């Protein structure tokens, strides 16, 4: 993978107007309509990691991919939920991370292709993913969950539901720049907003309104920051200070400490949204850390 300097990431995002669907609510609505009319492909890259095998099955009408190492006997499993603001499809960076986890953690990685807005909702997706995790526990043994951005929201909401409904504490939940409060109401967001080249509140509220379905926006299945954390398994979280989601990440750190939940927090000073997925030296190091946390948790 080509590595780029971290310093050019934010200017490049601004140059390409990466935030255009977030800074304007009307643009966000147009984007939902465009994705409804012309969905993006969710297929894995034609040239993924040479040391993995990719399979797919359909469960309840959803494509569910499995990425496994070609050599050795995998240990446990990890369910990965991709980000994209609940409206954009899985992309190559997600697939590449899944493949790296499969090979370097020697585990089975399961990737559900969940329905996006305006078709999918938080409660429907959490229920399906929760069932998928329980199936993996029976099939593969120890199973963790994680995701980036919107996928981080889903992951933590599912971890909360599994604890509440099935008395299951997962051995590892990985949150990469997670969306935690879909009301976008944290008073510190305006302070961070001028430095964030990627996300913004107006479009974020549009996507959240679709995603919440018939649930209140502060329901933990939509905004997991408002769930009771006690009884969850260990969490590893990453958040950059040039990300409007960072103030809520800091709140989660405080809540976890007060609840006695082990949360290993890695804050990227000057870093943007989902910085562990980017082709930078820091991104590479953070991906290695993610793999290590998953590998260790599945062997305990």
> What is the fourth-level CATH superfamily?
Alpha/Beta hydrolase fold, catalytic domain
CATH topology: Rossmann fold
- So what's the overall shape? globular
- Domain module count: 1
Quick one: CATH class?
A: Alpha Beta
Largest sheet: 8 strands, mixed
Strand order of the largest sheet: 1-2-4-3-5-6-7-8
Summing up helix and strand content along with how strands pair, one would put the structural category as alpha/beta
What is the element string, with H for helices and E for strands?
HHHEEEHEHEHEHHEHEH
Q: Report how far apart the termini are.
A: 31 Å
**Roughly what fraction of the amino acids lie in strands?**
15-25%
Alpha-carbon Rg, integer? 18 Å
How many beta-strand elements? 8
Q: Which stretches are low in confidence, meaning pLDDT under 50 for 5 or more residues running? A: none
* Average pLDDT rating: 97
CATH architecture: 3-Layer(aba) Sandwich
Number of helices: 10
* Residue share in helix: 40-55%
């Amino acid at each position: 993978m080509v590595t780029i300097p971290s310093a050019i990431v934010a200017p490049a995002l601004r140059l390409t107007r990466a935030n255009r669907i977030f800074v304007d609510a009307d643009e966000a609505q147009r984007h939902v309509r465009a994705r409804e009319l012309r969905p993006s492909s969710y297929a894995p890259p034609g040239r993924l990691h040479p040391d993995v095998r990719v399979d797919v099955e359909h469960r309840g009408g959803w494509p569910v991919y499995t990425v496994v190492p070609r050599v050795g006997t995998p240990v446990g499993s990890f369910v990965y939920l991709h980000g994209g603001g609940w409206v954009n499809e899985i992309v190559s960076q997600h697939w590449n991370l899944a493949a790296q986890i499969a090979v370097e953690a020697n585990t089975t990685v399961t990737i559900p292709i969940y329905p996006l807005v305006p078709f999918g909702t938080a409660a429907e997706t959490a229920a399906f993913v929760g069932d998928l995790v329980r199936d993996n526990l029976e099939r593969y043994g120890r199973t963790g969950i994680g995701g980036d951005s919107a996928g981080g929201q889903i992951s933590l909401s599912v971890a909360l539901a599994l604890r509440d409904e099935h008395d299951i504490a997962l051995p590892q939940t990985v949150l990469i720049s997670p969306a935690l409060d879909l009301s976008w109401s944290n008073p510190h967001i305006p302070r961070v907003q001028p430095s964030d080249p990627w996300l913004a509140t107006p479009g974020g509220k549009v996507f959240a309104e679709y995603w919440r379905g018939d649930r209140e926006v502060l329901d933990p299945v939509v905004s997991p920051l408002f769930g009771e954390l006690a009884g969850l398994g260990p969490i590893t979280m990453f958040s950059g200070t040039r990300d409007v989601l960072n103030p809520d990440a800091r709140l989660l750190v405080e809540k976890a400490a007060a609840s006695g939940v082990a949360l290993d927090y890695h804050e990227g000073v000057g870093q943007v949204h989902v910085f562990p997925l980017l082709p930078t030296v820091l991104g590479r190091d953070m991906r290695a850390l993610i793999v290590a946390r998953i590998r260790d948790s599945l062997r305990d």
